[in-house]
Q: What sequence folds into this?
């Protein structure tokens, strides 16, 4: 198999973020899509010659020309759509969070096993090349064991245009379901061992937004090793300042555009108007694949704020263009070449699983462990107690 023939379920915002990867990755080919919106299906058919489109997800999953299915539908449909794909023998890439309950996550893992297919959960920033390179350096043993990790990210997440369900924690909205999986998975990747417990604080600071926009979490990995996670999406300080104003997607940002997310939202008069503003960024409404095809690769890799891994013999700092190493007797930078395809690592892992039979790192079990920690952050913040973790890998 030279290329994985990929079908997409849900042509929304997640699909738009992954579109540059899906268009340019040499091992992937978009061949089919399912979406309830006729305009999105029509746009997909025009964008991808010979592609089939479906209103019904089951019909897409039954397509014999599809090798794998990318489930990018709303969170509450993930289980249904993963089951539909796995029952037809299709490998699955499902967006994070994979589910909103551990029971649904477990059912997805079981569906993949029953269908003898690979289940990959992502994209999260633990796919990003700088974190994977830092993991290689840690696993080499030259800097000793990991003892502490600190992860910090401040963004304008909460003040970007949102649909009502994205501001409702019960429906998977808010920073803990949307943003914490990225940070949790980066820390888990670098820790290299299962976490034992989590203690967290979080709350709704802005009643007008109605969901958690920030959290602090303390992950205990045992034997004296721990990680501190801090995230804020309240559009004040921005940790891209620590990355030379390289943004999350690896592109350059202008610090003089401070406050524009809040300023734009202040002009919106209602939740309906805000949802309409969000929908104008959806595929098939005003957007197609032309911009993704024309776009040049970003100058640097994706990242998720400031991360410092403290080993016995060095501190390691993954950055958008490499890894900074602060060792006992030297400080040096190990550069990474700029990406040829943004988020190529997602396609690499999917191809290796589907075409080569390699078990993926970001498996269903991996995704369930991340979900358990995110649910633990919520439970700990609400109950003021430490949460013991039981489903870590």
A:
């Amino acid at each position: 198999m030279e290329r994985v023939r990929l079908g997409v379920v849900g042509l929304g915002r997640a699909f738009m973020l992954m579109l540059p990867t899906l268009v340019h990755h040499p091992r992937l080919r978009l061949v089919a899509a399912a979406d309830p919106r006729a305009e999105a299906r029509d746009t997909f058919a025009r964008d991808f010659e010979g592609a089939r489109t479906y209103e019904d997800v089951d019909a897409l999953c039954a397509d014999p020309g599809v090798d794998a299915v990318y489930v990018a539908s709303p969170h509450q449909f993930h289980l249904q759509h993963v089951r539909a794909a796995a029952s037809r023998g299709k490998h699955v890439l499902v967006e994070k969070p994979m589910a909103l309950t551990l029971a649904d996550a477990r059912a997805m893992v079981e569906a993949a096993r029953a269908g003898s297919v690979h289940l990959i959960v992502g994209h999260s920033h633990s796919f990003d090349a700088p974190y994977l390179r830092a993991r290689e350096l840690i696993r080499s043993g030259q800097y000793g064991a990991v003892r502490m990790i600190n992860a910090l990210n401040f963004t304008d997440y909460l003040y970007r245009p949102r649909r009502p369900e994205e501001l409702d924690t019960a429906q998977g909205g808010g920073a803990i379901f949307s943003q914490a999986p990225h940070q949790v998975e980066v820390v888990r990747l670098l820790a290299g061992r299962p976490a034992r417990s989590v203690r967290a604080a979080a709350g709704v600071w802005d009643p007008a937004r109605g969901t958690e926009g920030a959290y602090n979490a303390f992950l205990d990995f045992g034997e004296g090793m721990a990680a501190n996670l801090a995230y804020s999406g309240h559009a004040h300080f921005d940790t891209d300042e620590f990355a030379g104003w390289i943004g999350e997607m690896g592109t350059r940002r202008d610090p003089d555009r401070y406050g524009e997310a809040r300023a734009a939202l202040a002009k919106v008069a209602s939740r309906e108007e805000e949802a309409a503003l969000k929908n104008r960024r959806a595929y098939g409404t005003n957007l197609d694949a032309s911009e993704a095809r024309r776009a040049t690769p970003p100058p640097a890799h994706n990242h998720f704020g400031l991360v410092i891994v403290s080993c016995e013999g060095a501190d390691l700092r993954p950055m958008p263009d490499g890894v900074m190493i602060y060792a006992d007797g030297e400080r040096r930078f190990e550069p990474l070449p700029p990406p040829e395809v943004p988020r190529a690592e997602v396609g690499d892992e999917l191809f290796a699983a589907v075409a080569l039979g390699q078990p993926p790192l970001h498996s269903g079990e991996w995704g369930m462990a991340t979900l358990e920690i995110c649910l633990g952050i919520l439970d700990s913040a609400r109950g003021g107690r430490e949460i013991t973790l039981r489903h870590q890998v």
Q: What stands out?
A: The chain has two domains: 4-125+341-373, 126-338.
